[in-house]
Design a protein that fits this description.
The complex is a heterodimer of chains A (about 260) and B (about 140).
Chain A: H1 2-38, H2 43-56, E1 62-67, E2 70-75, E3 82-85, H3 93-107, H4 113-125, H5 132-149, H6 157-177, H7 183-201, H8 208-216, H9 222-233, H10 237-264
Chain B: H1 2-18, H2 26-45, H3 50-72, H4 77-84, H5 90-101, H6 105-139
Helix pairs in contact in B: 1-2, 1-4, 2-3, 2-4, 3-4, 3-6, 5-6
Classes of the chains: A mainly alpha (about 260), B mainly alpha (about 140).
């Protein structure tokens, strides 16, 4: 009886002496996966990164289940599996690159668990690389360029730039203001529709359709659509379908926003 | 033609900024977008079906992005996302939506189906480029 108790004690101690290290490794994997998923990386890249990090810290068997709204990660053994909820997603390829290079350095054995955790925490806090004005300028110039690519006239370049820039600033502002998804896209595209109609009816713009198409492009969920189909083809059916649904709803919100304006026009 | 190339370069690089791509990769983003768009308009001008043209163009974008990714040791997604932006059928989707709103469902459904096939073609092109890349890696 006493022996059994002693053995149990020994067993528990054994688990406790391993666990803190494993817990840190799990935390590193989950943080890396979370940052990548929130920044718009493909599902297979997220799973691959977590698997590699775990493997290079000496855990050959790890399992993960990644969907756009959460990650479940577990390693073989007594350690509990962990779940992380992801509510906010955006496209931030800089963070994807940074986490990717951190995971490369982990694989080559340059970083200890603690160092990796610190670097990842720093990467998570990093803000956008471009100021808000640069991004708005980029959106408006892209809108003008899209107009030309869709065989529009150079006369419509400035109207498309203005409409695209206003629509994109509206999107940024509303995303920070309202928590309801797709509402920001809906309202921004109505702003674009209104501005375009204003330009055409005052004679400063000519082809209404092309101005709207060009300026709506910065809102279009291009990354989501391709990531969705890529995920489906890679066998990540759950995330592929949910990303596809998100892309469809976003596109629908944009279309409805324009449609509402047209119905009054 | 030159205007098309320049605008597609600027538009892709501009989207690079919107997607917060690292500054040193912006030039390559613009390049991959420009190359893809050049292939697309060349093929579409020569009476190749537009979905097939999009497939070939996105295949080229994928190959170019994989080259850049290997060369600069960054994830492929950075270059391929900006590269396919000019190909995304925003105009078609818009036309479809507009026809739906104007209660012209026949035209709208046709356009919607076209949009779906077009975006499928882009994705298949990207996947093909990955397949080619994997085959090359296996034989090296």
């Amino acid at each position: 009886m006493i022996e059994a108790v002693l053995m149990m004690d020994a067993g528990e101690m054994n688990v406790e002496s391993i666990s803190p290290k494993n817990r840190d490794i799990i935390e590193v994997c989950l943080l890396a996966g979370k940052i990548m998923l929130q920044s718009g990386a493909e599902t297979y890249r997220v799973e691959d990164t977590m698997f590699r990090i775990a493997a290079s810290y000496g855990i050959p068997e790890s399992h993960s289940f990644v969907t756009p709204t959460g990650i479940i990660f577990s390693i073989d053994g007594d350690d509990p599996s962990k779940l992380i909820r992801i509510s906010e997603r955006s496209t931030d390829l800089q963070k994807v690159t940074v986490v990717n290079s951190i995971s490369r350095r982990i694989s080559s054995g340059e970083l200890s668990v603690q160092q990796a955790l610190n670097e990842l925490k720093e990467a998570e806090k990093a803000g956008m690389a471009y100021s808000i004005w640069v991004r708005i300028a980029a959106a408006s110039i892209s809108s003008g360029c899209f107009l030309i690519m869709f065989q529009g006239m150079w006369n419509d370049f400035i109207p498309a730039m203005v409409a695209g820039g206003l629509g994109f600033s509206c999107l940024l502002y509303l995303h920070a203001l309202v928590q309801i998804k797709f509402f920001a896209e809906f309202l921004s595209s109505s702003v674009i529709g209104l501005v375009a109609i204003l330009f055409v009816s005052t004679g400063m713009g000519f082809e209404l359709d092309k101005i709207i198409i060009g300026s709506v492009m910065p809102l279009v969920p291009g990354l989501l659509i391709t990531n969705a189909i890529r995920d489906l083809m890679a066998g990540h059916l759950v995330s592929g379908i949910s990303k596809g649904a998100e892309a469809f709803l976003t596109a629908f919100a944009i279309g409805t926003g324009i449609a509402v304006v047209f119905s009054f026009y | 033609m030159i205007a098309q190339l320049i605008t597609s370069f600027i538009a892709s690089a501009g989207f690079g900024i919107l997607f917060n791509t690292p500054k040193k990769s912006l030039l390559q983003c613009g390049l991959s977008g420009m190359i893809g768009w050049a292939f697309y308009i060349f093929l579409a001008d020569n009476y190749v079906d537009s979905a097939l043209a999009a497939l070939i163009a996105s295949l080229v974008v994928g190959l170019v992005s994989q080259y850049f990714a290997k060369r600069y040791k960054t994830p492929v997604i950075i270059f391929s996302v900006a590269g396919i932006i000019p190909l995304v059928p925003g105009g078609l989707a818009y036309d479809a939506m507009r026809n739906f709103v104007e209660n012209d469902y026949n035209v709208a459904l046709q356009l919607a189906a076209k949009t779906f096939i077009f975006s499928g073609a882009i994705a298949i092109g990207l996947v093909f480029s990955e397949v080619i890349n994997q085959i090359i890696r296996k034989y090296n």
